[in-house]
Amino acid sequence: MASHPAMALNGASGILPPGLAASTSHTTNHSLTGSENSDEEADDDDDDEDESQFTDIDRYGLRALSSVIKMRQTDQTQVVIGSDLALLGLDLTQPNQKLSKTFASPWVETSRAEVEPPFKVPASFGISSLNLPAPDQTISTYTDETLFFIFYTKPKDLLQEMAARELIARNWRYHKDLQVWLTKSSDSEPVPINGGCERGVYIFFDPHNWMKIKKEFMLFYHAIM
What we know:
5-stranded antiparallel sheet, transcription regulation
């Protein structure tokens, strides 16, 4: 069948009838939208750089950090770049205000208005180091156990010498071989055997078990100080 001349003309020239002609504005919008989408895709391609192309220096530099910042906020990105403190409800307007007094935790279930309970420091607690007496003025008031503690925990210190002097003044003697302190028992008097030793009941202080032990012992005078 022979084609209609008008149809042949329209088909040849590409001109459609008025009812079938595409809108110019629609075509333009479509072309613009297509170009915008292409630009956005290009931008996305630029933003999402291929990390496989990063060098070892780029992986730990600003280039890798830039890609992390543009990522969606996840737990991983928060670990890397942190969180904005202003978004946690913190009052950052007062520079001298401690955040620990009003902020207990970033989790809502553990937060409360008064983190630090109200308290009052007694006046007796306000002791300055300048008002403390010197140790040599108060060491005579210490107990025997306190003096032993100072002696064994402060080697080659002035406090060790002061504690030793006070123990000697209290009739304690240091056994150089046994490395313990001893004193005569008040229950009995030692019996001299010769000019260099005596036998009797003595009280020893055991620093390992931190206790006083009473036992009979032969004491040589050259072994004590």
